[in-house]
Structure formats: C-alpha cells, structure tokens
UniProtKB/TrEMBL annotation:
Coiled coil: none annotated. InterPro entries: CTDL_fold, Sulfatase_Mod_Factor_Kinase, SUMF_dom, SUMF_sf. Residues 40-94, 277-465 form the Sulfatase-modifying factor enzyme-like domain. It holds the Pfam family FGE-sulfatase. This is SUMF1/EgtB/PvdO family nonheme iron enzyme. Gene3D superfamilies: paralog of FGE (formylglycine-generating enzyme) (3.90.1580.10). It comes from the Bacteria. GO terms for molecular function: formylglycine-generating oxidase activity.
Length: 470
C-alpha cells in the first residue's frame, strides 16, 4: 500500500513539473472568485443602444442626433439612495468627529495613545520597522449622556473624565463645540485623473520621470476661522502624489430647500422634517448637491475597504449619463420610457411614475411629493423609479454638443470644476425627471442639467460600480 502511495506521489510531481517547462514563457496567472452581487444593487449587462432623445425637443431646441454606443457591464442601485441610507453617512461622520475629539482630548492632556480607549494601533504586517498607524477605535463607546469634568492626576496632567450624571449630548460638547448640521464635515482625497491626461503630462519611461514642464491644477480645502475654504493649487508634476486633490464637504442635506424652491407655498409643516422623520426613511434623499453625492460615493467605498478580509472592489461612483440612460431603457432600445410603452399610463389608465400630470394636478398619480422608493413597477432589469420621483445626478459635465465629440464606447465627459471656474463649467447632467416635472422630462433620452453646488427638493442620486469579469 505504501509503495502505491509513493508511486502516485512521484507521478504527481512529474506531471506537475511537465506542465511548467523550464526556460519557456509560461506566464504568471492567478484566479479570482466571481464578484458577489452588492447589497441593494442589480447587475446591468453589457450591450449597445441608440443613445439620445427619441422624440422632438419639448422646447423646440436643436435636437442632438442619436448615435449607437456600447456600454460595459456594471452594478447599479436598485432604487435611489434613501433618507435612511444617507442618514448612515451622516451618523458615521458625526461619530467620527466625536471619536476624534475624545481621542485628541486624551492625548492633549497627557494620556499615551496606546492607552487610549478611542485610539487603536494598526500595524503593517509586511514591514516590522514601520511605526504603526494610530487610527480611531470604532468599537469604543461614545458617552453621549455624560457630563465632563476636568481633573488633575498625580503627575499634574489634566484630563477630562465622565461623571455619572446626565447631560444632553455631553460628548459633542467636549470642547464647547456643539455638533449640528453645519458641522457635519467629511474630508477625503481623490486622484485628479483629468490632470494626468493633460497634454504634456505623460510619464517619460526613458527618463523615468515626468516632463520638466508638466504641471497640475488640483483642489485643496482647509479651515479658516471655522469656515471651509476651497482653493486651487497649480504646481509641478513630479510624482503621482501630485495628482491628489483634497476636499472638505459639509454633507448634511439642505432641509430648507423646500422653502427656497417654492415661493408663496406653505411647505413648512411636513417638509422641514422630510430628512429626519422616521416616516420618510424609505423616501429618496433630496437637498443633496452633486459634490455631496460624490462624497457619499467615496465614503461608501471607504466603509467597505475598512472591513478586513473583504475582497477589493471597484469604487462606488455616480453613473455617466450613458450608463444611466442605458440602464433606464432596460434593454428596450427605442422605448420612450423605462416601461417600454410610448405613454405615461398603462392600459388601465393608471400612471406609471410619480410626476406632474396635466396642469398642476400633482396628486393624480397618487402622490403629492416624492413617493417611497419602489412604489411603481421596475423596468426589465429590476430598477425602480428610473423615471419620475426624483431626478438623478450623473458624473457627466453638461455640454449640448456631447454626442458629437464623445466616444461611442463607454462615452463620458467629466470635468471636475474648480472653485474658481465660471458657473457654466459647473453644470452637471441630471436624468429621469422628478415629481414636479411634466411627463416629457420622464423620457429616457431627455437630458437636463443643474449646477454642481446647487441642491433641489427634486434631485437625488443612486450609485454604480464597475463590474470586473467576463
């Protein structure tokens, strides 16, 4: 028996060795598991379609011609991002601000970071000589209802300690700084790919360096007198790190947009609580600028990456206008609306989406304002509310000549407008129409726009993620 096992082992080694001939090009290959379906998303398979309006312009403007484009596969949120989902972002930012304040307080008043409850040390397993990074300990308890007193220890080092008495929102008043909607600040970095693509900014492999005249223009944000200051820095391009822009964004929705959007309208009773009230948890979040939506996508990627042992993924992002339109059509290439028909009613006479029917009869479709996500039937790919409810931000910069200069494969035109750019450069494409738009804006191929730093009670968003695989 042992002899047979030995022969089998030798045979296996010989066969394995023969499959990798020495001195030959055999390549280095790996294996990867198929991507798991992200929670709350649907798969949009690759394909081609005729992009552009199927009907004449509602304003009798010059109509862009249709063109056939091809789109790669991607994941897309089944519904618009809801108040409840965006509230998770707000709470994460709130907790990170408080944890940072608690951790800094302990260090500033003499406590070693290694002994801090609110700090944790993260070691690099590949480099024992490298100092560990000090990061926030998200498992630490935040004493929201503690009252803080300043005490002196034996070494005359001051430290704040929680006292067992109730004090509303004690943790966020640690430095006398009340946390409110105006201080929900999210800081992040991103790579300015548009600067890498500038003429003359290519990497010279012969010199192993960038062109001596290569320059980049990147965003930079910082605080001055308690306010966010956005500025633009132009500097030489010498290493890849020079392509990184920094952004500081106040991420809390503008709950007053209902007041500023409509003059001579009594919206105060319900609309001021639209984001915060539990009854609206499953409704699409509104009052969000394009810049806030971008920050949300970055955060969504971050919280996935912060969980150990999860596979690396492509970044969450806003869809391009081509991806959005392709997904909205649901495989029906020339249909006016996501449901396939040429009308906004079904055969029973019921409306197919939440919009503004006829002359101001908002309630004819069953709703006065945005409806709960998924209230109407999905399209053939399982995507809800691709027409009506709220219009949606895309990553595409608006230009009425887009069909004439964008590529016919994954067409995209992105421009990260700087704070110093004119307003016309800050226009972003929105798609789908909303609860306050007439039916013509619900068509898949109709394109509208809004400034990236403006928010509306009729504009929301959903995320996509590129698909890796065959």
């Amino acid at each position: 028996m042992k002899k047979l096992l030995f022969i089998a082992l030798v045979t296996t080694v010989i066969v394995t060795g023969c499959s990798q001939p020495k001195g030959q090009l055999v390549g280095i290959y790996g294996s990867a598991k198929p991507e798991e379906m992200p929670y709350g998303m649907v798969f949009v398979q690759r394909g081609s379609f005729n992009m552009g309006a199927n009907d004449q312009s509602i304003t009798w403007a010059m109509q862009p011609t249709q063109k056939t484009v091809s789109i790669d596969a991607f994941w897309m949120d089944q519904t618009e991002i809801t108040n409840g989902e965006y509230r998770q972002f707000v709470y994460w930012v709130r907790d990170s601000i408080v944890l940072t304040a608690l951790a800094r307080n302990e260090v500033e008043f003499g406590l070693d970071p290694e002994e801090s409850e609110y700090y944790t040390l993260r070691y690099d397993p590949y480099d024992e000589s490298k100092d560990p990074d000090t990061v926030l300990n998200w498992r630490a308890r935040i004493p929201w209802n503690a009252r803080w007193e300043y005490e002196m220890d034996d070494e005359e080092k001051g430290v704040f300690r929680a006292v067992n008495s109730v004090y509303f929102n004690g943790a966020d008043k640690l430095y006398g700084k009340q946390l409110n909607s105006h201080k929900m600040i999210y800081y992040y970095k991103y790579v300015a790919y548009d600067q890498a693509a500038r003429p003359g900014n290519s990497f010279d492999p012969n010199k192993a360096s960038y062109n001596e005249r290569a320059t980049v223009t990147v965003d930079s944000s910082f605080f001055r007198d308690g306010k966010i200051v956005d500025t633009v820095i132009e500097k030489p391009l010498s290493v890849r790190g020079d392509l990184i822009s920094t952004k500081i964004i106040n991420i809390y929705p503008d709950t007053m947009c209902w007041m500023t959007e409509f003059a001579y309208s009594f919206n105060e009773p319900a609309m001021l609580n639209y984001f915060s009230h539990p009854s609206y948890g499953q409704f699409p979040v509104v009052g969000i600028t394009w810049e806030q939506a971008e920050a949300f996508c970055h955060w969504r990627t971050k919280i996935h990456g912060d969980v150990r042992n999860l596979p690396r993924i492509q970044e969450y992002r806003l869809p391009t206008d081509a991806e959005w339109e392709y997904a909205a059509r649901g495989g029906r290439h020339n249909a006016l609306y996501p449901w396939g028909g040429p009308y906004v009613r079904d055969y029973k006479g019921c409306f197919m989406a939440n919009f503004k029917p006829m002359r101001g009869n908002y309630t004819e479709d069953g709703y006065l304002i945005p409806s709960q996500v998924g209230s109407f039937d999905p399209n053939d790919w399982g995507l809800f509310d691709m027409s009506g409810n709220v219009a949606e931000w895309t990553s595409t910069a608006y230009d009425n000549t887009l069909p004439y200069f964008t590529l016919d494969m994954n067409p995209s035109y992105e421009y990260n407008a700087k704070s110093t750019d004119p307003k016309i450069m800050k226009r972003k494409v929105i798609k789908g129409g909303s609860w306050k738009d007439v039916g013509a804006y619900l068509q898949c191929g109709v394109t509208d726009w809004e400034y990236q730093d403006k928010c509306r009670p009729s504009i929301g968003f959903r995320c996509v993620r590129s698909y890796i695989g065959n």
